[in-house]
Amino acid sequence: MSSNPTRRPEEDDSSEERIKRFLATASHDLQSPLRHIAMYAELLLDDLEGTLDGEQLQSLRMIMEKAQAAQRLTKALMSLAGGAPQVTPEEVDLQALAENVWGELTDETAVSDATLESQGLPSLRSDPALLGLVLRHLLINALTYRSEAPLHVVISAEREVADWFIRISDNGAGIDPAYRERIFEPFWKLPKAGTVPGAGLGLTTAREFLAALGGDLSLEHSDQSGSRFLIRLPVA
Q1: pLDDT, mean of residues 19-25
Q2: What is the pLDDT of residue 15?
Q3: CB atoms within 10 A of CB 49
Q4: Mean per-residue pLDDT for 215-221?
Q5: CA 132 to CA 99: how far, in whole Å?
Q6: pTM (2 d.p.)
Q7: pLDDT > 90: percent of the chain
Q8: In the predicted model, what is the mean pLDDT of residues 196-222?
Q9: Which of 72, 111, 64 is nearest to 88 (CA)?
Q10: Between these two residues, 129 and 72, which has the higher pLDDT value?
Q11: Whole-angstrom Cα distance, residue 171 to residue 5?
């Protein structure tokens, strides 16, 4: 999607520098507490493994795994902010990744009337931490800007020659045409009464992560029936 034609180049440069500083500072400050969470979870597992039941052990392992995943993600964010993104490609089960991200978000938001349709998604080679965060930002977007109807999100994927095309569709309120050129701008949020204030960086960082992966993100369609975002990723 093209940038707003009324914006001057120096404004775009300023916004890009602001988002890089934000990502670098936040990621750096999170490294130490995340390292300690992972370390103490591992120590507890070693000390208490023989005394905890299966559910307790699973919860403790989950704390350690999530802290380690967050450590990898913050390192990737710092490298991205520094202009030299460190991408660690591996085989990613897109179906499992989408279901995991969706489950975490619906638990966090306590949403009970939202459904995800994502059967048969392929495995592909990418960085699971960065791709997971892209999905998280797009699904948060759908959960935030929903309509009065129960939310239904559909994720589909198809390969065309050297690229994967992943589409994320929802039946939300849609995006006003006046705002469609602005949704990827850093620190800008789509106006909606009652939404929780945030940094306005979700779609911006999602696009930056995909650029680091050799792909891109665009708004393919939006009207009163909902929106559809398109992720393009190279096959290899």
Answers
A1: 72
A2: 63
A3: 12
A4: 95
A5: 10
A6: 0.72
A7: 36
A8: 83
A9: 72
A10: 129
A11: 29
| Three-state secondary structure readout of the chain | CCCCCCCCHHHHHHHHHHHHHHHHHHHHHHHHHHHHHHHHHHHHHHHHCCCCCHHHHHHHHHHHHHHHHHHHHHHHHHHHHCCCCCCCCEEEEHHHHHHHHHHHHHHHHCCCCCEEECCCCCEEEECHHHHHHHHHHHHHHHHHCCCCCCCEEEEEEEEECCEEEEEEEECCCCCCHHHCCCCCCCCCCCCCCCCCCCCCCHHHHHHHHHHHCCCEEEEEEEECCEEEEEEEEECC
* 133 Cβ neighbours under 8 A, 6+ residues apart: 73, 205, 206, 209
The sign of the dihedral angle between the CA atoms of 140, 220, 131, 20 is negative
46, pLDDT greater than 50: yes
Which value, in Å, is the radius of gyration of the alpha carbons in the chain? Answer: 19
CA separation for the pair 230, 168 (Å, rounded): 7
Confidence class for position 86, pLDDT limits 50, 70, 90:
confident
Whether the per-residue pLDDT at 193 is higher than 60: the answer is no
Work out whether the CA dihedral 65, 89, 32, 103 comes out positive or negative: negative
Q: Which amino acid is at 6?
A: T
- Mean pLDDT for the chain overall: 83
CA 138, 142, 144 angle in degrees (round to 5)?
110
